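Sequence in, structure out. First:
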Amino acid sequence: MTDPVTTFADVAQLEDALSRPTASLVETMSSLEGDILFLGAGGKMGPTMARMARRASDLAETDRRILAVSRFSDAALPERLQSWNVEPVSCDLTDEGAVQQLPDAPNVVYLAGTKFGTQGNEPRTWAMNTWLPSVICRRYRGSRMLALSTGNVYGTTSIEGEGSMESDALNPVGEYAMSCLGRERMFQHFSNELDIPTALVRLNYACELRYGVLVDIACRVRDGQPVDISMSHFNTIWQRDANAIILQLLTETRCPAEVFNVTGPTHLRTQDVAEGFGRLLNREVEFAGYEGGAALLSDSSRVFSITGEPEVEPAQMMNWIAQWLAKSGELLDKPTHFEAQDGKF
């Protein structure tokens, strides 16, 4: 199934689509008890995920508060959240005293973390990704915890296989991926020690029209820049699908912590995607690097057996992105650096 939207006029319509709940999520929200608190909600996914939780809860006729905690570097975001009936809560999560003053909530979605700018700022990266979870787990020891991680903890795998599975050995490359494994270990430790029901979500490349691997490739094609094919294949998932799948996992938290891969089911070849954007944007495509036999790929079949598969296919995403770029739609200027093989971001 594809999203019924054929084109997006503006950011408001895009964010409305990204936060539209699925029927299965509405069912999840009808059975879930209590308020939901989103930590680190000011990033790329947080606003639409919190809004989706609000909309799904309303459709389920479930009375709950949805709270979004962030430093709010975007000063306009709190007002937008309030317009969606999501309660903004301003807090620097690195301030332990301030964290202790945050509202209680039986359901906590942990979105905080650092990726870009890791190189040259490794101590802060480790603090944000590994120390901070210990602060949050001690504060919310009576809650269930849904925490985002990354498929980078696996390292690369053969492009001939189905992708890394949750049971595979981990091989993080670079300090970012290692610090993310540290984040997982902290959540696992406190899940065990404090009996916190926890789900860890290893997400690979959520994408919408303003950022994502597909946007990175499309922009390079549009601008006549070479597309690096060293990372020869990748997974990606439409952000609305990622939001809905992740939120459904609130009812899959366990002690010890459960781990779930979340990404699209298709392994996309970087060269094929670039050539597809060349046709959509009427541009010649140049390439750099050489295709390798290994890539960062994940198998999400386990989570799909619980939540159902994503509704939006890569071809639909590519069409939307090409239309968006053709009319100079807003971009977040946050490249994924998916092509990096040395783990340096």
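Second:
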Amino acid sequence: MKRRGFLLAATALAAFPAAGVERFRRGLLWEVRAAGAPPNYIFGTLHAADPRLAEFPAPVRQAFGKSRTLMLEHVASEYGRQRFLESAMFLDRRTLAQAIGREDFELAFEQLRPVGLSREFVNKLKPWGVLVNLRSSWQPASVSTPDSRLHELAIERRMPVAQVEEIEEQVFTFDELPMASQVALLKHALAHRPDLEALSERTLKAYLARDLAALWRLQQDFASRSPEIASHHGELVRRVIIDRSVVMAFRLQRELRYGHAFAAIGALHLYGEKGVLALLEQDGYRVRRVY
């Protein structure tokens, strides 16, 4: 059976809280300095496999070329893939069809068909296991994400690579999401596939324009049109964006304090008064937009 890969993807439903730090509204590449140390760079990525993201802008290539270590949200490994897959599946007698109903199960199976998953396999997935993979079902199989390409470049340069989050933390983010929220968010995503694809396109265009505020606004506007999932969406936002930004700002400092580090994290983690850049400033780092 052909499988395009069971990947941790940023769900199109993820949003970000309102923020008031104006100078973090635009920009994907930021210089971050600790007192007396060489510069570091933090690059906001989009976890998407799209040909328009195939080439890194010149300032990003230059910053990466001057760096000695790479930090990524997640570094792919066989253990990590197996652990994430295992946690995304019901290991008891429960099934996806029981959780979301037969009609929505058929929708989920059809929408995941391009990934190459069997009906039996899909039926053992938890709702969040389907939710985080819906996006990959309409992305080209031959295109890698910017994060993956950075990892490949680092390996070519024999550049040390560090992981910001452990696999168990990523599992916890989704697996502890209440089942009621998993079901509600998945049902909404299945019912609004065309809207989500349109949102994905607008999100990509905002990203290419380096407009972090627009990235946030697009997600918030989309969520505001569906008040029936407001509480579930808020829980997802807290877990996927807010809580993880705090952890990232702390973990990144393992390398940032020494200088010459290049970190790549999701662009929404950069934006606003609760974003990674603002949190690093609060810890005494100097932050300057490069691109």
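Remark: The CA atoms of residues 69 and 261 lie 5 Å apart.
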